[in-house]
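hey can u run this one w/ coenzyme A bound, need the structure tokens asap thx
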Amino acid sequence: MEKENISYVRYLPKNANELAGVYSEVFAGPPWYEKFDRSQVVLDIQKEIGFETSAWLAMDEKRVVGFTWGYSKRIPDLEKKLGVSLNISDREVAYQSELGLLPDYRGQKIANNLVRLRLDDFLEQNLEYGIVRTKELPEPSVTFSWYTNKLGYEIIARYPKNDGRVILGRSLIGLRKLLV
Ligand SMILES: CC(C)(COP(=O)(O)OP(=O)(O)OC[C@H]1O[C@@H](n2cnc3c(N)ncnc32)[C@H](O)[C@@H]1OP(=O)(O)O)[C@@H](O)C(=O)NCCC(=O)NCCS
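ok here u go:
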């Protein structure tokens, strides 16, 4: 069903609890099949989304149906967080931390719009390179295919032991025109 009343708002701390529920529902499905404790997700969100984080929500009327966030990070700190070596010289990059949409709302460019709003914040902060962790195997995530086939991201690191997760990166210059 086409959802016509989607609006986009910046995350506010009052959204933490509802966002935690949506986050858990999104990642309970393929290809992630994760199980989260909601109160722990609330704490993680409060830790992750700080003053300088670009964090956006997609709203259907007053209900949170999708989310994205990301933030600037120095390469050594990001390597520590991700637990992999990135082979990139030390600089500030845009870490595209999270993106998700409730199943009923997918396939209508809502993620595209969220990613574009976040990109605008990154460009405003003069960040020039974007990094994201996603999954290539055993089945590629939607973002893996989208980012590599359509948005020009490249694999810059793989997790060892056929873990399936990869790190993608690309220059943010020229990306905006691909997010229609
Ligand atoms: C990834 C996700 C947010 C995409 O949301 P969405 O609103 O359906 O995506 P959009 O409609 O904006 O589509 C963006 C692009 O993704 C790709 N895409 C979307 N749905 C797809 C599907 N079912 N199969 C293949 N590609 C798909 C397309 O390339 C599309 O671009 P196009 O329409 O120009 O071809 C959503 O599928 C989701 O929440 N998945 C589970 C959580 C997740 O994997 N998050 C990312 C973790 S790294």
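The radius of gyration is 16 Å. anyway lmk if its weird
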